[in-house]
Amino acid sequence: MHLLKLAFRPWRTSAFMQTFSALGAGAAFSSAILMGWCSLSLEPVMHRLSSEQVITAYLDPELAQEDEGKVVDTIRTALGSQAVSDLKLVRALEFIAQVRQEHPDLAEQLEGLGGAELDAVIPRYVSVSGTFSTGTVDTIRAVKGVGSIETSVHKAASLVGSVAAIRWITILVSVALAFAACIVTFQVIKFNTQQFADAVSFMELMGGGGARSRVPGFFSGTLFGVLAGATAAASWYFGADYLLSHLRTLSPLVSELPQVPATGAAFAAAITLLIGTFSGVWAGAFSPARRSAGGRAWL
Description:
Structural class: alpha+beta
Helix content: 55-70%
Oligomer: single chain
Shape: rod-shaped
């Protein structure tokens, strides 16, 4: 019972500091884990942007309308077993129907051009989207009836770079938050051990050293870890979805992030509790060595 009273002494003398430090450390640990989860979730987005592409194969203007289906079948055969998500032939009327959804005035102007002028302004093309190998563009270009080709692979390079930069920023923020939370935890536990250092020294002089002298530090660190872990779990459970809901509105790329796993709250609480308990064990293990070494600090 006396050892438990020693462990609670810092909480009696400086309750506000202990409480707000635990709340801050728990929120920082939860934010660090959330940033780390975001960086891991952005990796599949980068892979999709770098691998998926849209190939637009413009048909030869002199190609007869009855030969359009043959060209489409030849392209489909040339792609083989590659992961094709969409393949379609787009004529002038289909293109106008797509334009009408965003620009109805422009669609009406295009419809008024007439048959020959419409075919001259709006070329026929085959749109192919999916994940393709390196030589797919050259394979489609070699198909008879294909005039020119455009691909989105070069346009997506800047997006991949932007996502990579965001991913590295989240990693740096995660590491910085975790480091700051660990420093706060260790310094608070160091302060706590100093509160009962004299009592522990006296207990050692009376023959109560060994593992018993480390019990106050262990319980003090565990109590700090419990409060910080509860804060981390609550921050994750109530704040993670709210924060990501606002982040998803910033960019369509961020909107592809999956839902935050509910198990993250338990993981954040467990990690924070372990760090708090480890700090207490560390304080209990090194405080006797610190006193016997002439007062040199253990942290």
